[in-house]
Amino acid sequence: MTIPTEITLHQQSKTLELAFDDGSHGILPFEFLRVFSPSAEVRGHGPGQEVLQVGKRDVILTDIEPVGSYAIKLVFDDGHDSGLYALEYLYDLCKYQNGMWHDYLERLEAANASRDPQVKS
Q: What is the pTM of this model?
């Protein structure tokens, strides 16, 4: 199992930087992390139950909490804090980021949805 050796929160660039014990590293935007949260709220409880996350372009990661030696909990300013990001999942997010993001953008377009938050009147 490849695990992070460093996790650095960059508020200005809205990214989470990870260095792994195999020498690899990745930079994950807050929006990407929020959209691909491993929570049931996002993933659903089974295949086909995924909930497309929209309007998350400006989401801010406000806190990172360790969960044992196997995961971290990310807290976002939209109130989302229920996903436990297993260390292996973080590695996969870094490794497959480009393809995952491309698929997400295609799903957004197909749903005629936007990354931009809805303006509340």
A: 0.94
